[in-house]
Write a structure and sequence with these properties.
Strand order of the largest sheet: 3-2-1-6-5-4
Order of helices and strands: HHHHHHEEHEHEEEHHEHEEHEEHHEEH
Structural class: alpha+beta
Number of strands: 13
Oligomer: single chain
């Protein structure tokens, strides 16, 4: 709703009204309705009084009754024209007509004096209307207009020679002065209230925005957050907390009570202890949810209190899965050990090369088969140590590696069949391996030796966790999009835990004690060198669910073309 002012802010910015444009549901709209309803009520009272005077036989005229009826019709028309015209450019004219109708009706009633009633007090209504909803200049102008009407009435009375003229002149002057004072005070009060309302609206808007930000932050926290009252009702729970409580969104929408599940009783006891002692608590609890593994949680509770005590206290509980904490600590320890291992590996490399060289020289002079077998064992273990040293150093210098050549290409189907077949013969796993190639022998950007190392790592990992049944491991290729081939290694192993999935491709992370935790990390590093993507998903093969590691390759064609164009530019 626009503020009721016949002046434009661009023309007279210093005469701006108290209320800024708002929707009809705001404070200006409500004040406007109050004034319009008050005008209708006054008009109804005036008509009723005139009818009562005529019924009682007191002095009254039909002309005065007609003015009251006309004023009632005008107030009703303006009241119901509000929704169709107040928000248009014709608002100023309607506003002037509103004040004009009031002052004209009250002036006619005051001049007629057909009854013993005094209508001067009614002039306060248009003054208040202009002061509260209009600018200060309009309020003072309305008060001045009413004062002139009162003085004109006294002048008309003096011409007719009726009553004490001096007293009426004094009364009109005092009334006019009072109306000026009312206009000034009402306008200043309206300005202050409007300013406070705008500040309140800004504060509410900022508070709503902050609440949305807080909700977004809490929703993305890995740590569970519960907000509860003293009776154990959960007012709010973020997704991490629902997951830890095994409480899906649809089955347990907030609010819900911790008494609903027996497994949640340890949390309920901690809430009661927090409210009972009125202090923060910290504990480790175990939640034995039906059909799920027992969850061990580290729980911290905090109390919220209002400054004036008008709001109830709430308990905010933070839940952390101990398995994830332990896995994070283990990763940090392994990372530190990895940095130390890189330094040790660098120092081992030269002595190891000397041992291998000395063993090769010694083997040349040996004739005895037993001694040659011993030197062979030394050579094999030296090669194994050299491979481990190379892997450790490869990880420690991963960021400093030279980018892979972009002109390397390999035909995926043929390479996958050959490499998987060689692996199956070496590992005696031909019965458990199934090879399915459907990429149309697409050329992908990858080095042949690196692809062999990548595929063997994935196959070794798949065989380690497969059931060993026929075709329990599968190597497959297909086209995900024209020119974009995918290689997948699937096995029918058990599903991986979520904490394991989150750290699959991190260095030195492994679920086995004898594994270095470098295999999948090296696979990821090789894929990144060639612009490929590696990932994990749980998918079925037929009716058998299993684990799949997939690689999405970059096509070789565009890369070769870019390499050739780069070579041409160098020659030019």
């Amino acid at each position: 709703m626009k503020r009721p002012s016949p002046l434009r802010e661009s023309d007279a910015p210093n005469l701006a009204g108290a209320w800024e444009p708002e929707n009809p549901g705001g404070a200006p709209g409500r004040l406007w309705l109050v004034f319009m309803n008050a005008r209708i009520a006054i008009a109804v009272v005036l008509v009723t009084v005139q009818l009562a005077l005529q019924a009682l036989g007191m002095p009254a005229s039909h002309w005065t009754l007609g003015v009251c009826v006309a004023y009632l019709c005008a107030t009703l028309a303006i009241r119901f024209l509000r929704h169709s015209r107040l928000q248009t450019d014709h608002f100023s004219g309607l506003w002037v007509a509103t004040l004009g109708a009031d002052m004209a009706a009250f002036a006619l009633l005051n001049f007629s004096q057909a009854s013993p009633l005094n209508y001067s007090a009614l002039f306060a209504l248009p003054v208040l209307l202009a002061s509260v909803l209009g600018p200060l200049m309009l309020a003072l102008g309305t008060a001045a207009s009413v004062t002139l009407l009162l003085l004109a009435d006294v002048l008309w009375s003096s011409v007719r020679g009726s009553g004490d003229v001096n007293a009426r002149w004094l009364q009109a002057a005092l009334s006019g002065s009072g109306l000026f004072l009312v206009a000034l005070l009402a306008n200043q009060l309206a300005v202050r209230l409007a300013r406070e309302e705008r500040l309140g609206q800004k504060s509410r808007s900022a508070a709503r925005l902050q609440i949305q930000v807080n909700e977004m932050v809490v929703a993305t926290l890995a740590e569970g957050v519960l907000v509860m009252d003293a009776k154990g009702w959960v007012r709010s729970a973020n997704p991490a907390a629902r997951h830890q409580l095994a409480a899906p969104e649809m089955s347990c929408p907030a609010p819900f009570n911790l008494d609903a599940q027996p497994a949640w009783q340890p949390l309920l006891e901690l809430v009661r202890q927090t409210f009972g002692e009125q202090s923060a608590q910290e504990s480790t609890v175990s939640l034995a949810c039906p059909g799920l593994n027992t969850r061990r949680l580290q729980v911290r509770s905090r109390l919220t209190r209002s400054n004036d005590g008008s709001q109830e206290s709430l308990c905010v509980m933070f839940l952390a899965d101990l398995r994830e904490l332990e896995a994070r600590i283990r990763i940090d320890k392994l990372a530190a050990m990895g940095r130390m291992s890189a330094a040790v590996a660098h120092e081992i490399r030269n002595p190891l090369a000397a041992i291998s060289q000395a063993n090769a020289l010694l083997e040349e002079d040996l004739i005895d088969a037993g001694q040659r077998q011993l030197t062979g064992m030394i050579g094999q273990n030296a090669q194994r140590l050299a491979k481990i040293v190379t892997e450790v150093l490869h990880i420690s210098h991963a960021q400093q590696q030279i980018a892979a050549p972009q002109n390397t290409a390999v035909e995926l189907d043929e390479a996958a069949r050959q490499m998987a077949g060689d692996w199956a013969r070496q590992c005696s796993a031909s019965a458990v391996l199934c090879i399915s190639t459907h990429s149309g022998n697409a050329a992908v950007c990858f080095d042949t030796d690196h692809l062999r190392r990548l595929l063997i790592n994935l196959l070794d990992n798949a065989l380690r966790y497969a059931s060993g049944a026929l075709q329990s491991v599968e190597v497959s290729t297909h086209l995900a999009a024209p020119g974009h081939a995918r290689l997948a290694v699937w096995s029918d192993g058990q599903p991986l835990e979520e904490t394991v999935q989150a750290h699959l491709f991190e260095p030195f992370f492994s679920s086995e004690t004898r594994s270095s935790g470098l295999g999948l990390y090296i696979c990821r590093e090789l894929c990144e060198r060639y612009g490929a993507q590696i990932g994990y998903q749980r998918v079925p093969r037929g009716n058998t669910p299993g684990n799949e590691f997939f690689i999405a390759f970059q096509p070789a064609g565009p890369l070769l073309q870019s390499q050739m164009s780069g070579l041409d530019s160098v020659l030019v």
